Amino acid sequence: MVRLLMAVAAASVAGVVAAPCATKASTAAGPDPARGRSVFAAQCSVCHSNARNGGVVVGPPLFGVVGRKAGSVADFSYSSAMKTAGFAWTPDKLHAYLPAPRTYLPGVKMTYPGLRDPNQLDDLVAYLETLK
User: Cβ distance 66 to 132 under 8 Å?
Assistant: First the structure.
């Protein structure tokens, strides 16, 4: 009985110690599109479609956003700031824009305050890159 209790106690301590290591290992593994899909579902899907041939919801569809010229979806009424932004969406542009859209590009219509968690941002951009 004592051996059983000691084994349970050792397993409990190992679990407590291992849990933070597992979290650190998953973030150290780099951006994960699967986690990014969850971030998209929680943060973006209310306003944006991720479907191929998805239409405008509240904002423009994000399928194919990486490589697309900013302000170029035909069915969406962009702000003049976005229409004249003059760049194509790259992973670097998305990393710069998404934490604070209205600061990065004043005058945009997007009211989302921003995604400030750097790990979630990395995962989300990795996911958006898969939407081709």
Answer: yes
| Cβ-contact 118, 37 below 8 angstroms | no
The H-or-E segment that residue 93 falls in is helix 91-97
Which residue would you say has higher pLDDT here, 1 or 94? Answer: 94
Cα separation, 57 vs 37, in Å, equals 18
Within 8 A by CB and 6+ apart from 55, the residues are 49, 61, 75
Percent of the chain at pLDDT > 70 equals 79
* Six token digits for residue 78: 């962009």
Contact yes or no for 126/36 (Cβ under 8 A): yes
